[in-house]
Amino acid sequence: MSEQKLRVISIIYSESGYSDRMRMILSLGSSLDRHIILSSSSLEEREDCEIISPSGPMRAHQFWSWAAQQAAGIIEASEGRWIVHEYITGITSYLLKRKFGQRVYAITSAYSIEIAFLRERGWRRDPYSRQFISWKQTAQWLRISLKCALVRWAGGRGNDLFLGNSTAVAQDIQRLFPKKKTAVIKTAIDTNVFRPTLKKEQANSSGTFQLLYAGRINPPKGIGLLFHCLQQLHKEGVDFRLKIIGQYWPFEKEWFENMSAHYEADQYTDYIPRLPREELIPELSSADLLVLPSLYEGSPRIVKEALACGTQVLCTDIPGTHVLDPKGDILHFFQENNASDFLEKLRALMAQKGSEEWNQRIRSGVEWVRSYSHQQVSQQLIDLYEQILQIRKHESIH
Fold first, then answer.
1. The model's pTM
2. N or C: which terminal CB in the chain sees fewer CB atoms within 10 Å?
3. Which of 266, 248, 264 shows the shortest CA–CA distance to 133?
4. Which of 254, 258, 220, 228 shows the shortest CA–CA distance to 126?
């Protein structure tokens, strides 16, 4: 077999919302013979890759068309095969696969559970939240879910490989494409950025137990169960405070406000809209416990960010979180939609605060996150690329 150069076109839309993906892409560095990044926003020039961006802002469908034209020109002006690796959608990869056939090996990276969410009507699975969802909001959720599933189907038809960040995501893809190849490469976070910034005794000098939820605010995130449980603790006189950092879509505003009022959340909750990364880090570091009662997760980045900042995590035992820590050595798990189990685990953790076991768990979490870097993820990706182009077979491809 003649030598095949390792040439990759990476395509990412709205990288400001996916900064961890972009850092990983940039970490590929000089290991590739040629690396071209098609990005929806301009980036600083680098010596180890070529960065091409549109002249102005674009909506998603405009970017897909623009990226396909840019990539087609690059492939046409060269010989041999290219790997086209698209993050999130796969639409551009599909268009290029149709045009160039076997000259393009199309990969799409997926990060979320789309098909199971639609089939299970995921927006109604939290029993403590569904009563506040109106029929109009149900229609909106159905429309959004169908759109996400349709985009995945449209882009995935021409894919050679789906790359998931967890087995949960890979299995969700196989629900739609049972014959498609999938592989799993975990994601990392930047531990030079996410790290403990305060000693816990300084951050939490008061006796109040500080809970934190950070992320999207919507029904499948289990906010109803969280409020239901914390209302009970508040009535019992337990000294705690919940801080919620995140945003909801405009159509979810009525749902969130009605649910918050029902569970008297304003008496024990502080709400902060989405924060930039540099302002989120002190919040993560100063909290005693991150709570993540989600019903669907791919491989939640916020869990790794909290651990890196020295904060323990109590989360739902679902595939997307369980795969991070199968033995439960780092994370604390509670059973899905089980309010009594959540309260039991939370009370135990509150009682444990400050103990040697508590502090050892914090140290173990920090060390665990630091053991997996962007450079390691990038090397796994490079190994996968090399296998694809040279022998077209890899142990992690099913």
1. 0.89
2. N
3. 248
4. 220
